[in-house]
Amino acid sequence: MSGHSKWHNIQAKKGVEDAKRGRAFTKITREIIIAAKAGGGSTETNTRLRAAVEKAKSAGMPNDNVKKAIMRGTGEMEGVSYEETTYEGYGPNGTAFIIQTSTDNKNRTTSEIRRVLSQHGGALGENGSVSWGFERKGSLEIDPADQGYDDLFMIAVDSGAEDLKQDDETTTVITGPEDVYKVRQALEAAGIVVKSASLVMVPKTLVAVAIDDARKIARLEEALDEHDDVSDYFSNYEMSDEVIKQLEQES
């Protein structure tokens, strides 16, 4: 599922409901600052900033907070400067993890990411140690409404997408990394509601995990979700429906 497992998507939805608004706002604010710094403060020309602002709106962030974050990114307001850092490492059972962060102190974040992985049965790796097993793609979560898979697939492909993934939780359109916003515009023009759009790392192969390792992975992902510096992460594990059902019963 677009670099995330079905279990990750279930956990993400639960996290939206349970997470403290302050932590969610902190992460989104950093995304806006970095996007504005990299591509300017206009959502018309800066597609990455537009995606971050849309995420802020979905989370209920006040418009004034969004405006101030953009101004900090463009340098119109003083504030903490953040940099993006990507870490590669291993989780339980040799699963691969790519962890994206935004931080004002790289040394601190590196130490903390190493500690989180180690505490949950993993280890921090060198650059390139696992990224070879992933491909960068565009990912758009859509509202299927009452349309069937075949109809949605044809609409997605006609819009320039590569594939359509669907399970009980989500319907996701997969695109080339450079096509994500072009496809979004085409989908919306066709009357499809796009809930979110982002760039993700999709694993080339998947590693099946049993319940014991699945529990460890769930705890690792919870720790990553709770870390303010972690903006996103991707892995190559796969859980069966039976394992996912057991985790849901235990959580």
Give an account of the 3D structure:
The structure is a single chain. The chain is of the alpha+beta class and 251 residues long. 46% of the residues lie in helices and 23% in strands. It contains 9 helices and 10 strands. It has a 4-stranded antiparallel beta sheet with strand order 3-1-2-9. Helix 1 crosses helix 8, helix 2 (21-39) packs antiparallel against helix 3 and helix 2 packs parallel to helix 4 (63-74). The longest helix is centred in the N-terminal third of the chain and has 19 residues, at 21-39. It is globular, with a radius of gyration of 18 Å. It starts with 5 loop residues before the first helix and ends with a helix.
List the helices and strands and how they pair.
Blueprint: H1 6-18, H2 21-39, H3 47-58, H4 63-74, E1 83-90, E2 96-103, H5 106-119, E3 123-124, E4 134-143, H6 149-158, E5 163-166, E6 171-175, H7 180-189, E7 193-203, E8 207-208, H8 211-226, E9 230-235, E10 237-238, H9 241-250
Parallel strand pairs: 8-10
Antiparallel strand pairs: 1-2, 1-3, 2-9, 4-6, 4-7, 5-6
Continuous helix count? 9
**In the CATH hierarchy, what is the superfamily of the largest domain?**
YebC, transcriptional regulation domain
How many strand segments? Answer: 10
Distance between the termini: 22 Å
CATH class of the largest domain: Alpha Beta
Question: CATH topology of the largest domain, what is it called?
Answer: Alpha-Beta Plaits
Helix/strand-derived category reads alpha+beta
